[in-house]
Amino acid sequence: AMHHRSALHHRSKPGLIRHIVISCSLLLLWGLSGQCADQAFSAEPAAPAASPNTLSGHELLRIGTIHDQQEHFPESLTYYNLALSKFREKRQPQGIATTLVKIARIDERQGHLQQAHTSLKEAVSLFAKASDRSAHAESLLAIGRVSAQLGLSDESRDALTQAAALFTRVRNARGWNDTMVQLGLLQIAQGENSAGLTTLQQASEEARTRRHMDQQFTATVALGDAHWLLGHTSDARSAYLDALSLAEAEHHLPFEGMMQLRLARLDADKTSLNDRVAQGKRALQIAQAIHDTAAEAEAWSLLADLYRQLGQATESQEADTHALAIYRNREVSVHGNR
Length: 338
Known about the structure:
By secondary structure, the chain is an all-alpha fold. It has helices at about 5-10, 15-30, 55-70, 75-90, 95-110, 115-130, 135-150, 155-170, 175-190, 195-210, 215-230, 235-250, 255-265, 275-290, 295-310, 315-335.
């Protein structure tokens, strides 16, 4: 998550782009979008008694997708790689490209950006020769996002611009909206502030018109993040408050917790410190209720900082201890699973 603007001002351009795209957008990608890319293959388990080598590429891909939806990534990658071999052996370019996009999504999620980029380059070139414009647009959006995180801003802009045009041609409003959010964040990262804010505003309004809650939330948060980055604290706050009321209206706890954290982090004068503590506590309560340890650690860490500013040393120390304990547990479990 983003911390303080001052830290951002010292970053190099590629580092800045990567920071913005990661901090503003990972929620957008994994919580909200991407499910539609799985619709090409039905999600019904083909629980096979047979061994994998008797299954077709499409069957292997379908099993991989089921594991993917359940976030069983190692199993998912095993089936995707088997599917990829089968499609290559049968010379089925659509199957190859579809599988490469799915593998790249897992690689991106796990931070293996270069691997994701390599897979997506091949997928984009295969889709460009096929007739499936929607899938071609999805692959361009994915490579645009990954390129931005790698600091390849020109390549990212080209891919996102092409993706937006293709999504418009196939009347895919969801894809167009996801693309505009990425493009707006990229424009902000490159110093095209008014263009970036306009793009994000467009995405937010389009999602509102379509009454697509997830995308409206996503675009509004991205708009808030862009204002925050540019030092427009009151504009950032009003965007975050819009997103918060949306989350509350939908009784969406993860989104509400995220916004309480964002609002509590906003730079503000001393008088609002107690309000920010209340927001931090609400975020903590939500994180504990939904068993989100990453958000819980972030909330404790933020509370430690706020208590320190209020001169409450004991509370600050206790909050720090809670945050550290969670971070240590997470490290142990991550390394333990390798």
